[in-house]
Prior knowledge:
Blueprint: H1 6-11, E1 16-19, E2 31-35, E3 38-41, H2 43-62, E4 67-70, H3 74-86, E5 91-92, H4 104-123, H5 131-148, E6 160-164, H6 170-179, E7 183-187, E8 198-201, H7 207-245, H8 249-281
Parallel strand pairs: 4-5, 4-6, 6-7, 7-8
Antiparallel strand pairs: 1-3, 2-3
Amino acid sequence: MAKLTFDQLLEAGVHFGHLKRKWNPAMAPYIFMERNGIHIIDLYKTIAKAEESAAALKQIAKSGKKILFVATKKQAKQVVADLAGGINMPYVIERWPGGMLTNFPTIRKAVKKMSSIDKMIKDGTFDTLSKREKLQITRQRAKLEKTLGSIQDMTRLPSALFVVDIVKEGIAVKEAKRLGIPVFGIVDTNSNPNDVDFAIPANDDAAKSIEIIIGSLCEAMKEGFEERKIEKADSNAAEAQEDEDGTPRERKAKAKKERVAKEDEEAINAAVASKFIKEDEE
């Protein structure tokens, strides 16, 4: 797993926090110093927290589950769309629809509405409508695409949430916490790191800072995907051999699936437990 370096973070401006008067005292352990009225983030702690988050996200990706990225601030939108979209992860970069998680069935209905419109266009039904009806449906489709298009393939609740600016995306964080969904986030000096499960202290206002942090995490998730592919290939090869040997395939496949699921869950729980143990020691 490629590791972030101090120089890379320094060049990207990851160390710049907010004005001292805007700080959240809970961020004190992650602040190195104050310069010209601005808090400077301890980049060594940024590296440690980023590595901790990368390891947990890698395990989630390896298990084949989805991580929902949330970033509605201007300087983060395109970065998240490119990086999260590049690894086929769902993301929200427009307004967060209230109830996105807590009222997920309703959100899924809206997504299905978008799919039904696409089907109408494909099978020719759309062409039989009046000009006014076509205009209304086209506008409705565009509106749905803008807010929900990037989560169209998310058929169930995500296994984790990654947030850029946990203050701005407070509603999303609260919904995830209410449902017990682990939250990862880039946390600036004006935020409370205790609001999320995995906090990465970093500048959440500069595009370069956001890009370098998310880029490293996406690389870790890619590694998780690759390991999943390798394990699946090995499993298929083993099953083929079992068929030749006359070994009961179904029973062994089920046992392996249960074992892998248990290992993934233990790995994620261990990461969360380790985080809280470290915080207690600090």
